[in-house]
Amino acid sequence: MSNVDLILPLLVAVPILMATVPIALGLRFDRTGWGVTTLTTTGLLAATAYLASAVYSEGMVTHELGGWPREFGIQLVADEFSTLIALLVIATATAVLAYMRVGGPRGNTFYAGYLLLTGGLLGLSLTGDVFNMFVFLEIVGLATYALIASGDGPESAVSALKYLILGTVGASLYLIGVGFIFMATGTLNMQVLSEIMPEVLAQGGQNLVLMQAAFAFIFVGFALKVAQWPLHTWQPDAYQHAPDGVTPVIAALVSTAYAYALGRLMYTVFGPEFLTSTPYLTEIVVTVGCLSVLAGSTLAVIQTDVKRMFAYSSVAQFGLVVAAFGLVTETALIGGIIHLLGHAVIKAGLFAAAGVIAVSYGARTVDEYAGLADNRPFVAGGTALLLIALIGIPPSAGFIGKWYIAVGSVQAEMWPVAAVILLSTMLTLAYSARLLEKMYFTPATPVESPHPSGPVATDGGHEGGDGDDAHGSEHGDESAGNVGASAFTDAGRIGRGNPDAVSFGMLALVIVAAIVAVLLGFAGGELYDLLDPFATEVFNE
Amino acid sequence: MIELLASRYAYALMFVLMGVGMYMMIANQNLVKKLIGVNLFQTAIFLFFVAVAYVEGGSAPIVPTEGDPGAMASPLPHVIVLTAIVVGIALTAVGLALIVRIHSEYGTLREDTLREVRADE
Questions:
Q1: Are the beta carbons of B48 and A176 separated by less than 8 Å?
Q2: ipTM for the predicted complex
């Protein structure tokens, strides 16, 4: 335990500082953004792994910024829960870069935004201060709006503005909640708050009412940010119109980090005792979660656009996480966290697969996926595995999360949640099976497959990507845009995408995500043990 | 009730302002006015923090070198409001940039026209 706590401020500061580097270098050199970003995230991944080894062997690591005591200053905290999310954030951010090398949006300013997003997400997961959390919420939000708007079409700007307005309302409601917490307790540090909460509960009266109001504002604010029904309306648009390279990051990380923040506030700041003693609180949280599960799954079933379908599926999966947080049992809490982790891996893989299929096969709607397995067996196989994991067929990441949540719901004697989990699994099966059936059992119509069938070009695509470098960045931007646009409008008429547009890295991301999603299914017990200290501490206070 | 309102008028005003901001955000068809509504909504929250920090007869939280400073306002909400204002400015800038992009692509700032244009495409 020498200076391991110094990693905490570095994890937040380095990506934000490095975000300026691509822009500065961009004045002289054209395509430095990807290199700088990859170096930064890989370094941070190593640092986070070191931090994680310290946290999981010796317990919580804290750092007080500038040496100010935590009552006045800002504290960064890495415990079992936040380290897991930080590790997920930085690993996904690094992995998706493999996709962006050839497939994603280019340009130095884009990578500046990407690093800013990474820094914001790491800050959000490591902060130990409720107001600092608001600042990171907004940093993440700003970077997300900018990244979504970096899409080719004007639609992305419209959906980004919609997200901006709704996201700002969500963050502002959270800020009001912070105001109420400050009024009631006079402190903003989470650990201090968790120590004060039993007193506030015991005293009752005005301060308790203030805390209840704070919880109401915070919960509604986060319900907006995490996209809970009926506040989810920004999410399908944002996910659908974001560039293919950006959607995996946003879908896997942004809402996950917000859900983490909600869980952190519910369990560290307010505490299980507050949650259970406040009338109707757990009932409302669980109801909102369950309604999101049902509404999201049902809406996903009727979608024709694949990215939009996955977006509605995210509404459902986050509903499950929120419902798990509302159950207030140790098993359900850990189940929610594991489901958060598994869902992030699965969705990152699925959205990356959707991007690969869009450029290589020209398919964006469910019907266009016909015959995919014959023409692009690797990406179809990866997608199929990820879909199976999403449904929750054991052993997979989707299964263990749902299993623990279901067990937790039985422990809490909230039986309807178990029924909702079963029903949502059926609905997930409905929309996943539709896609699987199209990919594997519907032959492609002759007009739609002019290319001879064969494996996805891996080496050729990679070399093509390297060759692209010579053309300079502005040309790279154009060609990427055209591939996307022609695939979208002319699918089935002129040709079906270009298999060479897929690099080895893009395909590898899908395959690796699929493998990790399955492997996580075997790691359920280990994950439970890792998170157990956090849950025990929360519930025994 | 009247007495409560008279002593807590700052909070009441804040919620009225928030409501006005929210209404502007929802009911206005003009995108720029929507963004102004978002700003108003945020400003109401800043006023809320200022009202929280107000101390009857308190002085500015600058510690003098000698003597008893007496009652002081808490500096923390001021710092929070300053930070939140900066965040709000950044948000407004990004929002306006997006509106400029939308205007150059669709040639309109009105949401209903925008919906029609998008439906036609």
A1: yes
A2: 0.90
